[in-house]
Amino acid sequence: MRPLASILKNIPPTKIIDSTIAYSKYIPLDLSINNQILTGNKPGNSAYFEEYITNHLKKNNGEVAFGGYIEGRTLYQRSAIFKNDLIPERNIHIGMDLWVKAETPVLAALDGKIHSFKNNIGLGDYGPTIILEHEIENQKFYTLYGHLSLESIEGISVGDFFKKGEYLANIGNSDVNGDYAPHLHFQIIKNIADHWGDYPGVCNTKDLNFYIENCPDPNLLLKIT
Questions:
Q1: 10 phi and psi angles, rounded to 5 deg
Q2: CATH code, domain with 123
Q3: Is Membrane one of the keywords UniProt gives this record (predicted)?
Q4: What range does the domain containing 205 cover?
């Protein structure tokens, strides 16, 4: 059986947001602790952060800011779901973020069916989320789409089938997406265990090797760069 990473590499590039936006308009965005502009400010504040991303895109003549896989970030410190007295701090992002305007269409990455969906309410959480189940070469795996609009999880059912590139959802705004600037969190998951409508998108250092193995780099599939 071929490793999933090898399978993903051989799949033609796929877009998961508005297919009319060319990859030449995708601009890398560094949100790590090395970003000196954000250090000492409050990137967790959605209004400030949205202004920062908008200016970043204008400066670089872009429409989508992307990045974040295995990126250590400070922006999660504002939320107790990532750091409290009972759990080690989680600050390493294990998906890819695509920062773009609210209501931008979200597309299915591959042929697949809805595994689960849920509104993950709370500061710093996903908000409305859809998980698709896929099977290629007898291997099941999953793709997660987080920070969607509320309408995106209305009128859908577990088992609904979507073709690659078919409209799936829309990007949510800060009122519903966990209080972030609008973006899509996209993640590939090999073994989803008993998670339903949710899966960790941020981990701590101790668990990083597990998540690197279980959540391959989304760019293997998207091929943005």
A1: -90, -5
A2: 2.70.70.10
A3: no
A4: 4-220
Least confident piece of the model among 24-28, 37-41, 76-80: 37-41
∠ CA 130-103-174, rounded to 5°: 80
Summarised one tens digit per residue, pLDDT across range 127-138 is 999 999 999 999
DSSP 137-194: TTEEEEEEEESB-GGGGSS--TT-EE-TT-EEEEB--TTTTTS-SSEEEEEEES--TT
What's the domain count of the chain? Answer: 1
Buried b / exposed e over 185-217, threshold 16 CB at 10 Å, is: bbbbbeebeebebbbbbbbbeeeeeebeebbbb
Helices (H), 43-100: 46-59
Q: Is residue 181 situated within a structural domain? A: yes
The span from the CA of 140 to the CA of 188, in Å, is 11
User: Looking up tokens 């697949």, which residue turns up?
Assistant: 112
Note whether residue 225 is domain-resident: no
Instruction: Return d(Cα 103, Cα 206) in angstroms, integer.
Output: 36
Does residue 197 lie within any of the structural domains?
yes
The predicted pLDDT at position 79 comes to: 73
Average pLDDT of span 38-64 = 83
DSSP string of 104-132, one letter each residue: -EEE-SSSEEEEEEEEE-STTS-EEEEEE
To 5 degrees, how large is the angle CA 6–CA 7–CA 11?
A: 120
Q: Are the beta carbons of 106 and 170 closer than 8 angstroms?
A: yes
